[in-house]
Specification:
six-stranded mixed beta sheet, single chain, 8 strands, two-stranded antiparallel ribbon, alpha/beta, globular
Length: 208
């Protein structure tokens, strides 16, 4: 009885937890975006599988050439999770600036499949995932990011719950009010973008 009561209290607490970002804050950064000047090669891609394996997502991040600020767009959503690895593999043939995932949850199965196929994604450590979580929240609150109007991303933001991780916080797959693969993929893509080395300048052609 005590165990059941404690479990019910946990569910009640999660259901009543206020959103990590308000609808107004999200709406304020949901705005038109300018595609990257260099196409796919300017993109950083993050991928994630929902904890319940109901769907998967690939998010793209780049610096908007008009504003200089990070832009996030859900590039692809898949209802069949086993299709994620082939989808990521296809994207890598276009040579994005970086691609990777958080090293946690069922997403690891996709990462393992990619490695078996000779594709090596960049993995986000637990510490980096906490940094990615904080950076995403801070940029939305500070209005220094743009998001597309993907309804699944907006719902994932509304459903997300945080958990402590070391000295920081992280999005919690297990305790969130619903699946949040779009949000985690977006946070990973943003982290990859902010950590990626600057693109090499175009070669100068000398003519006598």
């Amino acid at each position: 009885q005590e165990m059941l009561r404690a479990l019910m209290n946990t569910w009640s607490d999660e259901a009543s937890t206020p959103p990590i970002l308000t609808a107004d804050e999200v709406e304020a950064v949901t705005r038109p975006q300018t595609p990257p000047a260099g196409g796919v090669r300017d993109l950083c891609l993050g991928y994630e599988v929902a904890l319940d394996r109901s769907r998967a997502a690939i998010a793209a991040a780049w610096y908007d050439p008009q504003t200089g600020l990070p832009a996030i767009r859900i590039a692809q959503r898949l209802d069949v999770v086993r299709d994620l690895a082939p989808a990521v593999a296809t994207q890598t043939t276009l040579r994005p600036r970086a691609f990777g995932a958080d090293d946690g949850g069922p997403t690891r199965d996709t990462t393992d499949q990619l490695r078996k196929d000779g594709i090596e994604p960049e993995l986000i450590t637990a510490r980096d995932f906490a940094t990615a979580t904080d950076a995403f929240i801070a940029r939305v609150k500070d209005k220094t990011i743009s998001l597309d109007d993907d309804p699944y991303l907006q719902q994932a933001i509304a459903d997300a719950v945080l958990r402590p991780m070391g000295q920081g916080i992280a999005f919690d797959r297990r305790k969130s009010r619903g699946p949040i693969p779009e949000l985690i993929a977006a946070a990973v893509a943003l982290r990859l973008l902010e950590n990626a080395p600057a693109p090499a300048p175009a070669p100068m052609i000398w003519t006598p």
